[in-house]
Amino acid sequence: MELDVPKNDWTFPSKGAIESEEKLYYHTMTKKDVEKKLKENDIIIIPVGSTENHGNAGPIGEDTFICTRIAEMVARKTGATIASPIWYGSHPFHHIGQPLTVPLPDSVFIDYLRAVMTGLWNTGFRKQIFISMHGQEYSLPVAIQEWGKRYQVPAMFYFVDIPRVMAETLMDKKHGGPYDRPFQHACEAEQSISLALFPEFCDQASAENTDIKGVLPPFHVDRGGDIYGYPIPGHCVIGNAGIECYTAPEGVLGHAKDADPAKAKASIERVCDYLVKLHNDVLAACPVGTLPPAEFMSQRPKEEVEALLKGPMQKGGRHIYTVAWPT
């Protein structure tokens, strides 16, 4: 996949900012801070992660930290706000039962995300960019679509599946990438990304190697991230691989011992460059305080939409929960 995006200068690893006075995150801001921010930049980046087994070398929150560190780099460059990360995620069938992994039912995950979208929209962040490294690309879009169907108000919501953007930079050498084996989970590739972004949470000396094979030949079912373009996406199947608490109790699918942060540099820079471009293009299309025309996105009565867009604190405005409660 070719990405015609401007190149930026990136420095990593850097210290995490979840509790930093930088106030990159929504949860570190005061009401006054948020009101000021919304006048400058009304885009919010929402890191969506998971809590799961990543073996002896990677942290339990690895998927979340990948998203937060990338979001921090992009927020510093653009001025966007970062939402409090989603620490628990949706999981495919074969993850169920794996110790250390905390899967949310898809219905709970989708409802939770939709409620977050609603609260942020009601606050004024009506341009939302979701980023995820975890395999929940089948459920996160459902949350966005259900939100749109329920509320039918102007908004700009985008889901960026990080592996899809990393594309060939995440592949094995046979397909033009830097790795010896295809990307899967807690493997050479993912561990390399973790070492490049948050080495302080990694224990590379304890890394493990495993060799996992599917029931069918590789051509049919895609690997992690669906980056190879095989006919069947990796999470559109049951029975092509065993449950991981049996087939991969280590929590590793691949050769984590071969990880090297240098191998991940191109992948990280690529996704950060893209997110900056997406951010800039959104604001170029709809500057701060504006959205696509209401009639372009909704057939709700004009007066109702205008009141919702004003919000609950302005004269004649209404909060979005007057339309529907999220669940």
Primary descriptors:
10 helices, 327 residues, 4-stranded parallel β-sheet, alpha/beta
Explain what this protein looks like in three dimensions.
The protein is an alpha/beta fold and 327 residues long. The chain has helices spanning 31-40, 62-78, 106-123, 140-151, 162-166, 188-197, 244-247, 261-285, 294-297, 302-310; strands at 43-48, 81-82, 127-132, 156-161. Strands 2-1-3-4 form a four-stranded parallel sheet, sandwiched between helices. Helix 2 crosses helix 8, helix 3 crosses helix 4 (140-151) and helix 6 (188-197) packs across helix 8. The two termini are 37 Å apart.
Distance between the termini: 37 Å
Order of strands, main sheet, comes to: 2-1-3-4
Number of helices: 10
Helix/strand/pairing class, anyone?
alpha/beta
Percent helix, as a range, is 25-40%
Would you list the SSEs in sequence order as H and E? HEHEHEHEHHHHHH
Regions with pLDDT < 50 over 5+ consecutive residues?
none
Strand content: 5-15%
Mean pLDDT: 96
Largest sheet: 4 strands, parallel
Outline:
globular
